[in-house]
Design goal:
Length: about 200
């Protein structure tokens, strides 16, 4: 999927009527949005750009190696869909809380999103990340309570790491076609620098 014209955004329900949908309908819309986001990120990947890649040369001209207008349109659609996804997830959470508030008040929605928001570009041998089984090119889907909707340009990963030193954090990564559940324990008790022993970038 190389261009925006290959991506069709057709939801089974209008996002503006989200409050009127039941749990099953909301779950379907969530799945549809995730699918469309994956397609849009695939367009960016095929064009070898990310959400933050510069589209203007150092001398102020549009890049000639990509369709700048199309990439900008893809980014706009991704931002809109991310916002829509947040709305749907919040609605799902409210529905679930309402359903179980009398019997299971502590029940929380599993924000098991399939959309990666960060990628591992470096793993230091013997560091916490290496010991957790994390590898270069793993794509992070869930990091503790952090996902594609709330990572805040990865700043929230730093916060959760600092608040959980020497405590296990559950993470979910995509490795090729595999979805893996791992556990990392941030610590300074190792020869290298930092608490994770890996480098993570936003995608």
């Amino acid at each position: 999927m190389n261009s925006l014209k290959d991506v069709e955004y057709n939801l089974s329900h209008d996002i503006n009527t989200i409050k009127d949908l039941n749990y099953q309908q909301l779950a379907l819309v969530k799945s549809e949005i995730e699918s469309e986001l994956n397609k849009l990120f695939e367009v960016l990947q095929k064009n070898k750009v990310s959400m933050d890649s510069a589209l203007i040369t150092h001398d102020g001209f549009p890049r000639s190696d990509v369709n700048v207008i199309e990439i900008r349109n893809v980014r706009v659609k991704i931002i809109k869909l991310r916002n829509d996804l947040t709305i749907v997830i919040n609605a799902l959470s409210e529905k679930l809380h309402s359903q179980f508030q009398n019997t299971e008040p502590e029940k929380k929605i599993d924000s098991d999103l399939l959309i990666p928001f960060a990628k591992v570009t470096e793993v230091v041998d013997s560091g916490p990340a290496a010991q957790a089984g994390i590898r270069v090119d793993d794509k992070i889907v869930i990091f503790g309570t952090i996902n594609v909707t709330n990572h805040n340009n990865l700043q929230n990963i730093g916060l959760i790491v600092k608040n959980n030193v020497n405590k296990p954090i559950e993470i979910k990564v995509l490795r090729g076609s595999q979805k893996l559940h791992l556990e990392i324990k941030p610590t300074s008790d190792w020869p290298g620098n930092g608490l994770l022993g890996c480098r993570i970038i936003q995608i």
